[in-house]
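Readers of this paper often ask what the protein records in our data store actually look like. Such a record has a labelled line for the sequence and another for the backbone structure tokens. The tokens are whole numbers drawn from a learned vocabulary of local backbone shapes. We quote a single record here, exactly as it is kept in our systems:
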Amino acid sequence: MMIELFAIFIVVFGVIYLWFRKRTHNLPPIPSGWPFIGNAIGIGKHGMVFQSKRWSDELRSDVIALYVGPRLFIMLNSLQSTIEAFVENKHKFTNRWISLSAPIGGVLQSSGIQWSKQRKFSHSILRQFGLGKKSFEERVAQEADMLCASIAELTGTVFDPFQLLTKGVSNVICSIV
């Protein structure tokens, strides 16, 4: 009785796995993963960068596909493949990744036509404030010099660069407005 239940469970689980794991023929090589969680466990303690390089070496491809849960990710593991994807074929890669944890919207989270319109609007507003003009570059260079001087004063001590960088960005923004 127990063996029959186990066999039925394996068959049902296998069918469900094959049903949800639809493989299209246009994808790059995919390392083997677990049902429903994909390659999430394979990332391990070394992190995504190390593991994606290892998978890239195993599959003998600079471009690999991964499933992390039900989501498909394409990993580009070389400068040449990145240039080919984002420079030579930029029209195919205009959509942006949408985070599951953040609300959809705004310049950072939008995609496609909406992102393009918001980007054009943002650039036009920033140009009105002086982006791309010599005076803007001078303000940024002046603040960068001050930031370098502040960091040089703290040489040999432990400090949080976040505060200095935040103040530097805020100073540039305030000088524009």
